[in-house]
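Pipeline run #58 for the internal structure catalog. This entry was flagged by the ingest filter as a single-chain record with no existing model, so it goes straight to prediction. Upstream metadata was stripped on purpose; only the residue string is passed forward. Reviewer on rotation: M.T. Logging verbosity set to normal.
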Amino acid sequence: MTDDAPYVPELPEHPDLRQIAQLIEDTGMMGEILDDRFRCVFFSSESARTMGLSAEEARAAIGLSLIARTAHEAFADIARVDAESGNAWTKHNVPIMRRYVQPGDADFDDVFDIAAGYAAKVTPVEAAPRAWCDRLSLPPHLRFRRSMLGDQYQSQLRINDDSGRFLGVLFLYRSTLPESLVQRLGRGDARLFERMDRVSDPARRSAAILFADLEASGDLSRRLSSRAYFELIRDLTDLIDSSVVDRDGIVGKHAGDGGSALFVSGDFGGSESAAARAAVEAARAIRDGSSRLGPDDVTVRLNIGVHWGATLMVGQVATRGRLEVTALGDQMNEGARIEAAAKGGAILASKDLVERLDAADAEATGLDPDGIAYTPLAELDGVSDKAIRDAGAIPVTEI
């Protein structure tokens, strides 16, 4: 990417195409519009966002045909598909394009570009279809370098004016996932997905760290039926996630009966104090909510640790099996050890985190960073050798 300005697409000049483009943009669809010479005249902001393009890169699509785009630097990875689906697309679409762009036309070579020799020999279709569809796949080594899914459907709709004159083609893109699965994904919180998208590229970021874990989980699993324990863990997961998401955090990994979260300072206007406050408030919401989980005859306690990471490497991990944000750094290990040292449903906070709070956020959380007494983690009762080794010198306090 070469700039940070948001991409705002220009609408086509033709009023019919402009109306369609406005609809695509207003509804947040991933699509574009080609004119009667199959050159792009509209590229939606959602297309740019999904493909991971900067404003400058997205604007580079305007004026290019889809074939010419494959040779453009900005689309080197995105426009490159595997050989099988690329050949199928060419065989399907070039005869349709030839219906409107003939050899000898001034812009024939520009439209067909690297396929011009092939296109000149192709027999055009007698009548262009009203709609058609292709399935495109990225090569395996490129499939996860962009946020878009590797396989996608490209649906094309022919656009004519009221007199029947050909105006161009509407391209709409969507995942090959069944719509029922897409709807299930849609049950997630859009705010969380947007935060995850903002950290798609790995980079050093400052963030508050939260770890939570169910105390005496082994005893609870033995006392409860398998179904009751499953329901407890499900409700626990929902409690952690909702407490984090509602306070502008990013949900991390869930490991059986616990969870983690990040509160990236960039999501709080760069304010480390606001990120630290959000972590404290989320921790308290998780602690207080845990008392209402499970059957009436069992006691559920969550032990929580909150810490500060000044130079975490934070980024998105997307594989065939998962999409998540992960953070690496010494402070992540320290945060896990702080949580492991908490007992009886306590929240332990590091000095590094508490002293990030400014006066207003300290007052809002009821904490006094200048008056708190801390204890080195190694001096707490029952601390494991591993916790002492990794985080023994870190000052902590119960909040």
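catalog note: The mean pLDDT is 89.
catalog note: The longest strand covers residues 302-318.
status: ready for reviewer M.T.
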